[in-house]
Amino acid sequence: MSASTTSAAVHGRVGASAARPDGVAKVTGSFEFSSDLHAESMLWAHVLRSPHASARIVSIDFSPAWKIAGVQSIVTQDDVPGAKVYGLEHPDQPVFAHDVVRFYGEPIAAIAADHPETARRAAAAIIVNYDVLEPLIDAEQAITAAPIHPDGNIFRHLVIRHGDQSVTGEVVVEGNYEVGMQDQAFLGPESGLAIPEDGGGGVDLHVSTQWLHSDLWQLAPCLGLPEDKVRVHLAGVGGAFGAREDVSMHVHLCLLALKTGRPVKIVYSRLESFLGHVHRHPARMWYRHHATRDGILQRVECRLVFDGGAYMSSSRAVIANAACFATGPYRVPSATVDGWAVRTNNPTCGAMRGFGAVQTCYAHESQMDRLADACGLDAVEIRRRNLIRTGDTCITGQILDGTAPTDQLLAWLDAYPMPADTRGTDEMMARPGGAGRTADAHHVKRGVGVAIGWKNIAFSEGFDDFSTASCTIGGGRVSIKSACAEVGQGFVTIALQIARTVLGVDDIVLEPADTFIGSAGSTSASRQTWMSGGAVMTACEAVRAQIIALASERWTVAQAAIELRDGRVSTLNGDHDEPVITFVGNDVVHQVVEYRHRPTCALDENGQGDAHVSWAFAAHRAVVDVDCDLGLVRVVEMATTQDTGTILNPQHVIGQIEGGTAQGVGLAVMEEIVLDHGRVRNPSFTDYLIPTALDMPHVRIAGLYDQPEAGAPFGAKGVGEPPTISSTPAVAAAIRAATGLALPRVPVRPQDIALP
Amino acid sequence: MDTTSLPDELVTYTLIVNGTTHTVDAGWQGESLLYVLRERLGQPAAKNACEQGECGSCSVLLDERLVCACLVMAASAEGQRVTTVEGLAPTDSGLSDVQAAFVQAGAVQCGFCTPGLVMAVHDLLDHTPSPTDLEMREAISGNLCRCTGYGRIFEAIKNAAAARMNG
Amino acid sequence: MPIATPHSLDDALRALQADPESQFLAGGTDFMVEVNAGHRRPGSVIALSRIPELKTIDLTDTTLRIGAGVTYSQFQQPPISSTHPALAAAARTVGSPQIRNAGTIGGNVGTASPAGDTLPVLAALDAHIELTSVHRLTRLVGWRDFFVGVKRTSLRPDELITAITLPVLDSRQDYLKVGTRNAMVISVAGLALVVDLGGRNVRVALGSVGPVPLRAPEAETWVAEQIDWESPRVVDPRTYETFGMMVAHAATPITDHRSTADYRRHAIGVMAQRALMRLL
Question: Are A93 and A252 in contact (CB under 8 A)?
């Protein structure tokens, strides 16, 4: 029932803690990230960005920039030969701001020069006259405010009405909650290299991304080129977490390369990275829970207002997730959910790990704790009485038909031993405030909090979600190929483990990811183990079947009497036995497949429908020490349990859980993009703080539920997002327990505790 | 309006990187050691995550002191010894003990922070062979990792320290 | 010559004399951040890292003289850590180990950021800044006269910061700092407290709550009278809280993206109270 049960697996195959194939390259520094790329005679690009959140562009004078020696090209919206707008789900974002700017940092022009400093100086020399406008910065107001874009201000208003709408409860708890704007803060900034095709009019873009084909589908129309003239290659990705799902500098870079006829490289600074990608939606959420006196949920009402910022990105899907999972992994017979995602002049928001479920989990778990207090129950008991289980109906009317080991997850967590209370003996560095030496032992209070969350795996609402993969045996090698973006999560390991297991061959090459093969879909929504893992599995199965069919024909033995093992194809009786490479010889056995999960449906006007493929669950118990007078928090321990499905690689799963938990801890106590009239005030690692090794406690795995999920390749669920969902509310609850404060907002800032 | 570009600010100097002397010919004076290593000397192991000393991804040794290469003006490092991940003494496996421990323990995900962390951990274990939990945390508190939550990194450090003590 | 790398103080001053527009480069931890961000052009640079005179630490019975090129890492070792533990504590909160290996006291003083971690300690200890001109004239400037505004000092264009001098006191001292992370964080508020047992006085200095480091003279005078200097101890336990309030009153904080003015003032009060309790 835990990861250890799978440790007997064959090394390198499914179930083993196989090492990353790129691990050695990464520790030696030879792994090529997108910012490491280099081409002969390449130019450097820099993007001029708006210093205002809302303004009309009155005039632009490029002449000072052209006077700088070394400037080779400047492109603006006028230079975009094809579509002028792009977008992940709907094209509403101009390649460059032209007449108006709608967010702080919106690109206005891009410069190519012979040195990055020259390009930067040229950008600074361009004189833009703005007619500065009052930005629309309040999401609630945006619902009724005058539109700031031809498409209007409302990305989506999603309503869920489930069950008897007139029900009320004996116990009613109500609350308003707020989540700040979190950033993905991957370490490797946006970067890429565009290389123009010699005489062919096309372009090759090497870029760090989460979805090569989505980039291609947006990029080619803007460049006015057919898709086969635009080739997108995955360059080494320094983390993603949702921020690389959208196009950033792709079009700019290709335009400059095509215009100059030279390779052009760009590497965002950290400041540009903060301005150049989407963030997690800040949310304001109102909730009212109705329950019986003994805490059984009768009805949940909520209103969710998500600030999508200037352009749509994935706002529609984010608010759908927020709404569908708004009431938490509980049986809720009656629900009314009003979900709004709106346009403002704040930075654009889109995908980040957990994707809508993070915000609502913080709110529903805060509500469950309030309900526990109102009913005189403890945090585990109130949840236990309401947990959703396999066969129950979700508020979308869909029957939850996958594994849902919610009881088990809470039970493991509840039984897990508490960490020792070392407040009296801790070194000062280990207390809240850390190196600042602010707390003595008697200033520190301890609190414990519990939370459970859920989320869908893969894309929902009828989206045609597929992944392509190929498997090839020929030319003396066995190879697989997928356009799945490896962003650090470990698909490169899992893909090889799957291929080795299916083919019975250990020595397999994973080809580079690019657009020479069909789409793998996005590395998001915890979907790649299932989807691209499924595609690799299916492609390998097809190759395996073809080999067996060939052998059956060649050796005139029944297919059932043939096996692939240890890199060899042989008959069970041993009459025939040769290495599969030799067997294939000069032929090529090649299969390309598209893998799809089971179809899903759109949600109807009441938010009802079988919209989701599968659900995954995780729970956390946080133990915190709080210096209440100064409002400083040290997270002492995070214990966690998760519904993983079959574990394909125990070490990778633990890595995802630890890393995901850290991002949730960060949101709970420190991470927020601070805005002032739409301007980002802290676009740096000096002021946007993510947990250091002195902030992140040990993550204790209290149990992993590894029963296979029906319909999933090898029975494996995605594991990346669930740890980020329940960790934040668990920490918030623990701080509440230590302080007795309501804390209706994350991140919890020192002043929220010290001066409530 | 300033129309001078970089030509007035070009410098030529030598750097000793991993024991090899390199001449940087007419580099812009404002270039950091990080930029010069990556873009002029073809040694991109030190990484460019923040370029303001707040992430540790570019950690290198400068005359045996662990520093952020992004905050060293390259031209000012003339004659000083620069050691990067590319210059770590390998064992038979081709990896240093710390590098091998990172691969083994699953301390690498996206890997962008990894070369800097490897340098920081070498620096730690060279000075403090048997670090406490807190010493270990403080030693790498300047190296941000966004993927791992540090769990497998701690594991790798403990394993490498234990191997050194027993080795 | 766009960059000079002098090997002696003399050569550094000569380089400055030759090109008065030159900028000094110490540890680079502020300078290069600005260059990397395009906010500063290096122009002519005099790199100070090779000058032995700037790296000396001289301790007498009464005075500690710290060369301007001494790094924060060295503060955590004797003699500084034993004679001036508050300085060691402050240095340990600066940035990361990498930053502490590169950043220097001279640089911290020269940058004169309101959030500079060593500045409150220097203010509490009534440090002097030693400045040497191209004419080889040396003057000692008290910290009050040296820090004149946000990132502004009274350093003259023809001078170099060569050392910091501090009295060696029979004292108890500490530095406390609030930041929203347990390490590698800019000070939201910082406080240095020195209980001078020999001089029978108390000095408290505040960081990040004003354009320059601030002292709290009223609180200092008042609290010195509440101490039984023979023991030494605080006679009335209510003294701590009152002291905290008085020190908080001396702060002149602002609200910015790192925190609020109210919180900063509050934190100063809490730290003052706790520091006094810890030392007495």
Answer: no
Query: What pLDDT, on the 0 to 100 scale, is given for residue B89?
Result: 74
Question: Which strand (E) or helix (H) includes residue A517?
Answer: none
The pTM (predicted TM-score) of the whole model is 0.97
Question: Do residue A29 and residue B112 have CB atoms under 8 angstroms apart?
Answer: no
Q: Provide the residue-wise pLDDT of chain C in tens; the chain has 280 residues.
A: 689 999 999 999 999 999 999 999 999 999 999 999 999 999 899 999 999 999 999 999 999 999 999 999 999 999 999 999 999 999 999 999 999 999 999 999 999 999 999 999 999 999 999 999 999 999 999 999 999 999 999 999 999 999 999 999 999 999 999 999 999 999 999 999 999 999 999 999 999 999 999 999 999 999 999 999 999 999 999 999 999 999 999 999 999 999 999 999 999 999 999 999 999 9
Q: Which string of b and e fits C244-276 if b means at least 16 CB within 10 Å?
A: bebbbebbebeebebbbeebbbbbbbbbbbbbb
Rounded Cα gap, residues A6 and C15, in angstroms: 68
Q: What is the least distance, in Å, from the CA of A694 to any CA of chain B?
A: 5
- Which of C5, C98, C182 lies closest to B66 in CB terms? C98
CB contact under 8 A, C89 and A634: no
Mutate to test the interface with C, among A437, A442, A665 (most CBs of C within 10 A): A437
| pLDDT score for B1 | 30
Q: What is the DSSP string of C86-123?
A: HHHHHHHTSS-HHHHHH-BHHHHHHH--TT-SSHHHHH
Per the CB < 8 A criterion, the answer to whether A330 and A365 are in contact is no
Interface residue C56 vs chain B (CB under 8 A): no
pLDDT digits (tens, 9 = 90+) for B67-121: 999 999 999 999 999 999 999 977 677 899 999 999 999 999 999 999 999 999 9
Residue among B14, B39, B70, B76 with most chain C CBs within 10 A, to mutate:
B76
Distance to chain A for B40, nearest Cα, Å:
10
What is the β-pairing status of strands C63-67 and C159-167?
antiparallel
pLDDT digits (tens, 9 = 90+) for B108-137: 999 999 999 999 999 999 999 999 999 999
Weakly modelled stretches of chain A, pLDDT under 70: 1-10
Please tell me the predicted confidence (pLDDT) of residue B6.
74
Name the residue among A435, A674, A755 with its Cβ closest to that of C266.
Answer: A755
C262 touches A: beta carbon within 8 Å: yes
Taking the C-alpha atoms of residue A397 and residue C39, their distance in angstroms, rounded to an integer, is 57
* Contact by Cβ (8 Å): C89, C193: no
Q: How far is C110 from chain A (nearest CA, A)?
A: 20
- Contact between A117 and C38 using a beta-carbon 8 Å cutoff: yes
Sheet holding A614-627, edge to edge: A444-457, A614-627, A632-643, A698-705
Task: Tell me if A36 and B94 make a contact (CB, 8 A cut-off).
Answer: no
For residue A347, the 8-state DSSP code is P
Q: How many CB atoms lie within 10 A of CB B22?
A: 18
Phi-psi region of A437 (alpha: psi -120 to 50; beta: other; left: phi over 0): left
CA–CA distance, C53 with A442 (Å, rounded to integer): 46
Structure tokens at A521: 């879909």
Q: Across the interface, do C178 and A632 touch by the CB < 8 Å criterion?
A: yes
pLDDT score recorded for residue A6: 37
Which residues does A156 contact at the CB level (< 8 Å), separation at least 6?
A315, A316, A319, A320, A339, A340, A341
Contact flag B138-C98 (C-beta cutoff 8 Å): no
Q: Give the per-residue pLDDT at B2.
A: 36
- Neighbouring chains of A at 3+ CB pairs within 8 Å? B, C
Which chains lie within 8 Å of chain B at 3 or more CB pairs, if any?
A: A, C
Are C102 and B141 inside 8 Å of each other by CB? no
Give how far A223 is from chain C: nearest CA, Å.
31
* Helix (H) / strand (E) containing C169: none
